[in-house]
Amino acid sequence: xxxxxxxxxxxxxxxxxxxxxxxxxxxxxxxxxxxxxxxxxxxxxxxxxxxxxxxxxxxxxxxxxxxxxxxxxxxxxxxxxxxxxxxxxxxxxxxxxxxxxxxxxxxxxxxxxxxxxxxxxxxxxxxxxxxxxxxxxxxxxxxxxxxxxxxxxxxxxxxxxxxxxxxxxxxxxxxxxxxxxxxxxxxxxxxxxxxxxxxxxxxxxxxxxxxxxxxxxxxxxxxxxxxxxxxxxxxxxxxxxxxxxxxxxxxxxxxxxxxxxxxxxxxxxxxxxxxxxxxxxxxxxxxxxxx
Amino acid sequence: xxxxxxxxxxxxxxxxxxxxxxxxxxxxxxxxxxxxxxxxxxxxxxxxxxxxxxxxxxxxxxxxxxxxxxxxxxxxxxxxxxxxxxxxxxxxxxxxxxxxxxxxxxxxxxxxxxxxxxxxxxxxxxxxxxxxxxxxxxxxxxxxxxxxxxxxxxxxxxxxxxxxxxxxxxxxxxxxxxxxxxxxxxxxxxxxxxxxxxxxxxxxxxxxxxxxxxxxxxxxxxxxxxxxxxxxxxxxxxxxxxxxxxxxxxxxxxxxxxxxxxxxxxxxxxxxxxxxxxxxxxxxxxxxxxxxxxxxxxxxxxxxxxxxxxxxxxxxxxxxxxxxxxxxxx
Amino acid sequence: xxxxxxxxxxxxxxxxxxxxxxxxxxxxxxxxxxxxxxxxxxxxxxxxxxxxxxxxxxxxxxxxxxxxxxxxxxxxxxxxxxxxxxxxxxxxxxxxxxxxxxxxxxxxxxxxxxxxxxxxxxxxxxxxxxxxxxxxxxxxxxxxxxxxxxxxxxxxxxxxxxxxxxxxxxxxxxxxxxxxxxxxxxxxxxxxxxxxxxxxxxxxxxxxxxxxxxxxxxxxxxxxxxxxxxxxxxxxxxxxxxxxx
Lengths: 291, 330, 245
Known about the structure:
The structure holds 3 protein chains of 3 kinds.
Chain A: H1 2-32, H2 39-57, H3 61-84, H4 92-115, E1 130-133, E2 136-139, H5 140-162, H6 164-174, H7 176-181, H8 186-211, H9 219-233, H10 238-258, H11 264-278
Antiparallel strand pairs in A: 1-2
Helix pairs in contact in A: 1-5, 1-8, 1-9, 1-10, 2-3, 2-4, 2-8, 2-9, 3-8, 5-6, 5-8, 6-8, 9-10, 9-11, 10-11
Chain B: H1 3-22, H2 26-52, H3 59-76, H4 84-87, H5 89-107, H6 112-132, H7 134-137, E1 143-144, H8 157-180, H9 182-199, H10 204-230, E2 232-233, H11 235-238, H12 241-254, H13 261-280, H14 284-300, H15 305-327
Antiparallel strand pairs in B: 1-2
Helix pairs in contact in B: 2-8, 2-10, 2-12, 2-13, 3-5, 3-6, 3-10, 5-10, 8-9, 8-10, 9-10, 12-13, 13-14
Chain C: E1 7-16, E2 19-29, E3 34-38, H1 45-53, E4 60-65, E5 68-70, H2 75-80, E6 83-85, H3 98-104, H4 120-132, H5 148-160, E7 166-170, H6 178-193, E8 197-201, H7 205-211, E9 215-219, E10 222-227, H8 229-233, H9 236-243
Parallel strand pairs in C: 3-8, 3-9, 6-7, 7-8
Antiparallel strand pairs in C: 1-2, 1-4, 4-5, 9-10
Helix pairs in contact in C: 3-4, 3-5
C-alpha cells in the first residue's frame, strides 16, 4: 500500500509537468486545428538550451526558464509563420501533422549534430535532495517542477479568461468567422497562441532535463505520451488535458511499481484505447456531429 | 479500363520484370527491392487514407507485425527450399489484418484528427510490445530468420525483388478494383461528407473497415518479405516511424487518391533516400536532409506530381481551345 | 383517425446544457400525407428532425416508424428502412458528378460491394429522376459547380433513389427563388400522389397552407396544435405563439 501511495505521489508530480507540456498542444489545436507533433522535440530543445546554460554559464535550470521561455516563444512564432500559416485548403489539418513531424525530425537531427546522441542530464547541486513527508519520499526537483507547472497553468488560464487577448483566443476557438467580423485579427491570434503553446512546453522542458536524462531521440517518448494525453482529455480542452495528464502520470507510476517498469509507458496507450471505446471524444471533447 | 491505362500497366510490368536482368548488379537490385517495397507501402497507404480521407499514421505497426509474424513462424518451422516464407505471405497478411480489425473499429469511431493520433499511438504500442514480449520477440536482442540456401550468391536479391513486385501488383490491382467499384463510390462519399453518406443509407463503417482490412493485408505482407530479406529484425527497425513517414511522403509527392501517384513518389524518393544515406550517413545529416525534403514537398507541392501535371495538361488544353476559338473569323 | 400513423413521435425530449430544445414533443405523420412541422424560430423543429433521424440522441421519448419502435435511431438503419431526410443547407458530394451523387444513394446489399461503380440500370434511373427535377442536362457536371437551388434539387432527387416511404424535408424552399419553389412544390405533389409521405419543416406559410395536411405547430419545444391547416390557422394559441411576446 505504501508503495502505491508513493507511486501516486510520483505520478501526480510528473503528471503536472506533462500537463504543462500538453496544455500548449491542446490549446493550439483548439485555435487552429493543428497538431504540433514537434512539441516533444521543442521540449527537448528547451532541455538542451537549459543544459547548455547550466554547463557553460552555471545558470540554475529553474532560473533558466526566464530565458528559455521567451526564446522559445519567438521560435514558436517563427515556426507558425514559416511552416504552418502557409498551409491552406481542405487538407491543411493532415498536412500540418506531417509538416510538424518533419520539423521534429529536423530538430532531432540538428540536436544530434550539435550535442551528439549521448544522454545528458542537468544536475545542479540539489538534484538529489529528497524530503520525507509523512513517511513518503518527495524529490525536491520534482516538487519544484510540479509547482512551476501549476503556477504557469494558473497564469495561462488567467490569461485566457481575464485578458483581452484571452477573450480573442476563446472567440477564435468558438467561431473564427464571427471573431474576425468582431475585429479579432485571427492570424495574429493564431501566431501568438502557437508561440504561447510552444513556450509553455519550453518552460517544462527547461526543468525536464533535471528530472530525466535525455538525448535527441527522447522526443518520441514525449510526443507519444503527450498525444495520448490530449486525445484522452479531448482535443482542444485545457481542463481535459490537465486531468488526463494526471491520470496518465499516476497510472504509469502505479504500473511501474505494482507490475513492471517496462510496461509502464505501454499503459498510456491501453488506457487511451480503452477510454475511447466508451467515449470517442475524450473526457471533455466535443462529439463531432456535423449537422 | 482505357487502352492508355492498359498500356501504362503493361509497360510498368515489363520494365519491372526486366529490371533485375538488365541491371543485375546486387546494389541496383537492392535499390529495386527497396523501391518496390516503399511503392507497395505507399500504394497500400493510399488505398486507405487516399480514398477514405482518414489519415492513418500507424501503418508501420502492421509492417512490423508482419515482419515479426514471419520471423516467429520460421523460428520453429523449417524454410525448406527457401520459398516457404513466400508461400505463407497471404496467411500472414490475413492474420494480421484480422487482428487489426477490433482496434480499427474502435479507432474509426473517432473524428479524423483523433484517428490520426490514435493510429500513431498504435505504432508506439506495437513497438513497446516488440520490446517487452521477450519470450516471443526476444526484445531488443532481435530475432533471426534462417538464411535461404538455394537462392544463389549472384541472384540472391532476385526472389525478394519479385516478391515485392508481386505484392505491389496486388496492391495496385486492389486500388484499381476499388476505384472502379461501388466500394470506391462509397469511400469517396465518406471522404466528402461522412454524415451525409450515412443519411443516404451507405454502410459507412463497413466500407471503412473493408478498405482498412485490405490496407493492412498488403502492409503486413510487405513487412514479412522485408524481414526475410534482412534475416535479422529488431524492434526499432521493424517499427520505424521513418518508414511510415517515407511512405506517406511518397504518396503525397506522387498524388493522393491517384493510382500511380504513390509508385511515382517511390521511384523519385527511394533513390534520393539511398543517396542521402550514402553521402550524409545514417545519423543526423540524414534526418535533417529527410526533414528538408519533406517540408519542401508538403509546402510547395501539397497536391502531388500527378494531380499538378494533370492540372497543367488541362490548362494547356483550355488555353489552346480558347486560342483556337479566338482565332476563328467572326 | 383510426389508421396507425406512419411516423409517431412521443414525449421526445432533448436538452443542450441549460437549454431544453425539445420538451415532451408528440405528434404523428399519417400514412401518405404531406405533414407540415411549423413554428417560430427556436421552437425545436430542426432538433426534432435530428432526433427522429438519429443525428442527435434524445434524452427521452419514443419514435415509432412503420409500426415498429425505433430503439436507437441511426441514420443508416433508418434510411434503409425507408425514412430519409434532406438538410437545411443542401448537402451533396461536391467532387462527384450528379449521376454519381445519385447512384451513391442506391441502397445495395453487401454482395454488391465489388460490382461496377455505376451500373447501366442505375444510371438510367438516375437520369430519369434528374430529368423529373429538370437538371438532367447537368448529369456529368461536378456537383460542387451547381448553384444553390440546383444543389437543393439534386439533394431531393438523390434521397429518392433509396425508394423511401417517408422523406423529411428540412426547409426545402429556404433561400430559393419563386420559380424553384413552384417546381419543388410540384415535385412534392407528384411524388405524394404516388404514395410517398413527407414531413416538411417550412417557414413559407402560403406553401404550407396550400400543400400540407395535417399541420403540426411547435412552440418552445412542444406541440401546440395539430390538425387541418384551416383549424390551425385560426387557433388562438397558434396566433399567440407567432405574434405574441
